[in-house]
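Need the bound structure for beta-D-glucopyranose, inputs here:
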Amino acid sequence: MHPLVTQLTIEEKVSLLSGASIWQTVSIDRLGITPLTMSDGPHGLRFQAATGDHLGINESEPATAFPTAAATGSSWDVELLVEIGNALGRESRAFGVHMLLGPGVNIKRSPLCGRNFEYFSEDPFLSGELGKAWVDGVQAQGVGASVKHFAANNQETERMRTSAQVDERTLREIYLPAFERIVTDARPATVMAAYNAINGVLSSENSWLLTSVLRDDWGFDGFVVSDWGAVRNPAAAIAGGTDLAMPDSSVHATEVLTALRAGVLSEGVIDEAVSRILMVRDRLGSEGVAEPVNSDAHHELAARAAVESAVLLSNKDRLLPLDSASGGAIAVIGEFARTPRYQGAGSSHVTPTQVDSAVDAIIAATTRDVAFAAGFRLDGVADQALLDEAVAAAASAETVILFLGLPDIDESEGFDRDHLGLPAQQLVLADKILDTAAHVVVVLSNGGVIDVSPFAHRADAILEMWLGGQASGTAAARMIFGVAEPAGRLAETIPLKLSDTPAFVNWPGTKDEVLYGERLYVGYRWYDTTEKAVAFPFGHGLGYADITVDEVDVVVSDPTVACAVVEATVSNLGSRAGAEVVQVYVRDLESSLDRPVRELKGFAKVRLEGGETRRVRIPLESRAFAFWRDGAWTVEPGQFEIEVGVSSRNIVGSREISLNVPAAIAALRPDSTLGEWMEHPSGPGLIDELFTKLHGTPLTREDEGLYRMAIEMPLNLVIGLGGTEGADAIVGELLQRVRSVNAQL
Ligand code: BGC
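Answer from helper R.:
Posting the output first, comments after.
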């Protein structure tokens, strides 16, 4: 318990449990308790000196707008995320901000989620690794992180009312691991409880989530802050494990005191919440002298990050990179080249320190003739003159660089998309340009994935830049002319059509609930298991260098322990430096439960100079093989296939390994089937004894059909079918005998 707790009056304690304002906690001067200041997050600082709001409407101080998480998720680059975190931490300190509200590590369950630009990936392992790196970076500067939105906040539709109906295995294997990785390995100062409910219980009141899982299972030692306005019943939220209700509230303290007096809430629970807040305050509260921020250096980091995050989806005949010194005229077409869309709308919206336009950067980067035509209006209104002008520019150019993307109105915090298409006027333009121009490079700006089929097969090259931050214009020019190589790989599958996506039939549910009917089969887990064709698979991305990955090997030093080291040789065959992301997928070949056909369990981004070769080693720990069953992580003995790939659909080598770990024994219950009895170590002997007693012979498989039917049935029914009375009592006695042999079975 924090020592100051005993010195606080009950009114003071309760006052500490909700905000003093939109961004600050309460101060108690007589005890020297100063307030904690918070700001959004996650890709830039939204520090509001004047009127605050949680929707990104009012002014905020200029800060670097780094690439959004949709972009940095595609970087697969943990070192880069640490660097960005460091920079965000430095900017936070410069404004006296103690806690930065990020990272967002919700899983991209459907490409329609309006807030997917704020999240890293459809894969929990990748999200966890990148989120941890971000938190490490921010917290290394003495600024606290707030991992959000805990949990299962995977859509904006009805985000404040809906309940995610999702089974525990799916939560543990898909929706919680990124949070778990960050909590256990990066010790974030706070976790933000989401607006939505899970299985009928609001996240902010959910003691299973906030206490059993977060604190008891994972050892979280920070405090839980509510999402802004997520607390409906202050006493229930405190009892459930939400320590700080944000923002300020006129009723919070009164309601908590009333609950205390009514005996609904104990003072001990309040003390614990206060203590957790004070402990974090001790960690973060030191004012210190902030170093001045070098905004130019941060802008350059943003440019580098945009390059690391950009995914070159296709590049026919290696059209890219273009020669900057020779060649015919270039037409840069598309309003986004002049008015970049580089961040999303809502609480993450920052005021950038500067913004680079791609057309300016392209003109500056080449001696070739460059013409610009806007081609379309951002408000989606058709404009024939703009279209004609763009087609004319395309007709007189050797190469067109066509900037397409989603406008602000199409994706944002607060609402979801209802289709994957680009605005109609952009598709009309793309069609005409592809009919007219000899060579077309499409450059995309969007947070969530879009339907690329209208132009994917006709464009020479497609460069997906996501919402790439304030320096994305410069980054685009560097990549187009080969000053830098696009080094991103898809952190989210690009599907062929919306109806192929895993949550399609359950999305977005009603105002009351949304069923996670696809369970574990999210993203490539779904497309690969159901063998669906996709536009571009998870993990895909091209570079300019000639890099190969081969000689895959897997070293298991002790097969009785679930761990292995995957090795592969990465070689740069050309003279140009470049990078590749080596991806390790695990497939369980002999599982007693259904499992996705492959799951990402390790990766390494490898940078090579021309001609360089390196052997990479990627460790796999027990969790890489485990699934969640009956309240625990289980690794079953048997065969696993370890695949190494450069996308989930481009596996370059694989090895089968055998793990002889001790088999987890499922406890027998009154309704256990005959088959489950036969698999249990004590089972077959007892069943033989029972059948001999009842039928004069042990259980036989003479009639295979009958046997297969019987093993699917609860044992008491099997016995009852034989006309035996008191089947339940017989099974009860057998269970006693099993338990007396080994209490934990
Ligand atoms: C968002 C959070 C954000 C908070 C404060 C909420 O609407 O969901 O992500 O941190 O506002 O702005």
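Comments: Residues 40-41, 54, 101, 148, 227-228, 347 surround beta-D-glucopyranose (CB under 6 Å). The mean pLDDT is 95.
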